[in-house]
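User: For my dataset I need records formatted as: sequence, then structure tokens, nothing else. Please produce one.
Assistant:
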Amino acid sequence: MQPDAPAILGPFRLCVDPERAEAYARETGGDGKSVPLSFPAVWLMEPMLFAPVREMCAALDVVPVHESQSFAYESPLAPGAHYDVSVSLRREETPSRLIIDATIFALDGAKVGKSETMLRLVPRAGLGAPS
């Protein structure tokens, strides 16, 4: 992926698995009764979403390190509900990072929210790996 040339993925139909949402809520200090605002981070680990990140990192010989996340909602996520999620991947060179923007839509097309995830791209050689 070239810097500043976004790759568009999706939309993907994803579900807020109630058990997974409850466990994630408890793991992040919630009561387990509502879906945490940061739950879309769980979706980023889905193979169809993370495979392009893994491939890019392998090609650049870097490791993605979590830098930041933000979430903005127009309505809360509901346990058991399905959503259509579109993702944009954009790479920056200075500093070296990958920005993952996700837009979440209800099945009727209404926008539910957005998330932004920034991953710093750290050279493997900088982590003590043989060069």
